[in-house]
Design goal:
Helix content: 25-40%
Order of helices and strands: HHHHHHEEEEEEEEEEHEEH
Largest sheet: 7 strands, antiparallel
Shape: globular
Strand order of the largest sheet: 1-2-3-4-5-10-9
Oligomer: single chain
Distance between the termini: 28 Å
Structural class: alpha+beta
Strand content: 15-25%
């Protein structure tokens, strides 16, 4: 399920105060990506200035803006292209009347749409290459709350936010099929203060014994795993099957069960660094092994959007996943 149809309700057709920006935009652009970004950015700015929405609705709005921006970047637009329109949206928000009936109508619509959005317990944030799966089922079971799976002939891995409502960690869990057992790991994220743009690597995801292009100790921020532990967890996305182990399309999957894996926990402060990246670029996990380092790439994608989604409170209990840094 895509986030866009739900969060779009938070940023419907611009109010009268934004007519000066949206009308010329429709006339001057031919793509379907810029307008959602601009509308959502206008609402983010208007909300920041006028305090129109409660905290969860405001958080969902920001998540919707980020995904719209990421969609635009994946479609080939650039922040340099979007920047003038975002500036105009902010200027329009700065000049809008916070009490305008048209703007208040948008707030009411946003709140109604948000209540429907809150009832969605699971979300898939696909990029075309991979996806983040988000889970807002609010039992306090130890489960993946946000995860990107990577399954190759070399290893099965799951990376993301794992745990219950109140205690969870930014974790990577891995099982190497040749029996390799790393003794430590670190996460490498592009340092945007040193490299202003990242490498968009279209090569298939796999384990490599060479550091991926675009990464180095000089140009990357390094986040060491705090430890290593043995766990039993899901390393593959669940597939619906019948009792015989066949999918709806007739493919045999067999028994799906948690697998033994090694767990590495990274500091959540890495999220701040990831938030600055292009959704198309990668972050890298370096495993230290007796035979030298091994490297695994994971796509940034809509990680921050997913993190915002899983942190929203449950609609009835008001419980929420603890995603504080």
């Amino acid at each position: 399920m895509n986030l866009r149809p739900h969060v779009k309700k938070l940023v419907l057709a611009a109010a009268a105060a934004t007519a000066c920006i949206t009308a010329p935009l429709v006339a001057r652009t031919a793509d379907d990506y810029t307008l959602p970004v601009v509308k959502r950015w206008f609402m983010v700015q208007a909300d920041a200035r006028c305090h129109l929405l409660d905290a969860p609705t405001s958080q969902a709005l920001k998540a919707g803006y980020l995904q719209a921006r990421n969609d635009a970047l994946r479609a080939g637009l650039s922040m340099a292209y979007l920047a003038p329109w975002l500036e105009k949206a902010k200027a329009a928000a700065d000049q809008s009347d916070c009490a305008a009936p048209s703007l208040m109508a948008e707030v009411n619509t946003a709140e109604g749409g948000f209540r429907r959005f809150m009832a969605v317990p699971h979300l898939e944030l696909a990029s075309g290459r991979t996806q983040w799966q988000a889970n807002r089922a609010y039992g306090d079971d130890q489960v993946w709350r946000l995860v990107q799976y990577q399954n190759t002939d070399q290893a099965d891995m799951a990376f993301g936010l794992y745990g219950g409502l109140h205690q969870n960690r930014f974790s990577l869990m891995a099982r190497f099929k040749d029996g390799t057992r790393p003794y430590s790991a670190r996460l490498l994220v592009r340092n945007t203060d040193i490299l202003t743009s990242g490498m968009i690597n279209r090569a298939p995801y796999s384990i490599s014994d060479t550091l991926p292009v675009g990464f180095s100790d000089y140009s990357s921020l390094s986040f060491m795993a705090s430890g290593i532990s043995e766990v039993t967890t899901d390393l593959r996305p669940a597939v619906k099957t019948n009792i015989a182990g066949f999918t709806l399309t007739g493919n045999y999957v067999g028994t799906q069960a948690p697998e033994a894996a090694q767990r590495f926990d990274f500091p959540s402060r890495a999220w701040l660094a990831i938030a600055k990246l292009d959704p198309r670029e990668d972050i890298v996990v370096e495993f230290s092994t007796d035979n030298g380092p091994l490297y695994a790439r994971f796509e940034v994608g809509d990680f921050i959007t997913g993190l915002s989604y899983v942190a929203l409170p449950a609609p009835y209990t008001h419980n929420q996943v603890n995603t504080r840094l």
